[in-house]
Design goal:
Number of strands: 2
Radius of gyration: 20 Å
Shape: flat
Number of domains: 1
Length: 148
């Protein structure tokens, strides 16, 4: 059983106004959840009906030592790792796509994407480079990126 607290749990950033279309506590939590799934601020913000710019403004208003900022950092690292793992899987094993003849599906074929493979290799090289140069992102023995 894991006794560690949820790294995505935080106290929502208080708002000076009570707008339904603003950063409500529910919207903040949904944003952090989406960021943890996909690792892209603009897409996570759009998924909760907000803009990337307003998300960064909320982060600035919360402050770097807030629970929201810690949850944001953890969610971003987690989302990036998930996205990279998915891309690696698709690059290595391809994607099954159907093929048709005269309007009927005749079967499927596995399609590989060389551009995706190149993008994955470049992303992994950037992660390795940042792990070497940034001691907060480095595990002493393995050099793997870790969230601090």
């Amino acid at each position: 059983m894991d006794d560690s607290p949820n790294p995505l749990a935080f106290d929502p950033v208080p708002s000076a106004t009570r707008r339904r279309d603003g950063w409500t506590p529910e919207r903040q939590r949904a944003f952090i959840d989406q960021l943890a799934r996909i690792g892209m601020v603009s897409t996570a913000a759009r998924s909760v009906g907000m803009s990337r710019k307003s998300a960064y403004a909320l982060l600035a208003r919360a402050g770097p030592d807030s629970g929201f900022a810690r949850a944001w950092d953890h969610a971003a690292v987690s989302g990036e790792a998930t996205t990279l793992a998915t891309a690696i899987e698709k690059a290595l094993y391809g994607v099954e796509t159907p093929y048709f003849y005269r309007g009927k599906q005749c079967g499927t074929r596995r399609v590989y994407n060389d551009r995706l493979l190149i993008a994955v290799l470049n992303a992994m090289a950037r992660l390795r480079k940042s792990a070497v140069t940034d001691p907060e992102l480095r595990d002493d023995r393995s050099g793997r990126r870790t969230a601090s």
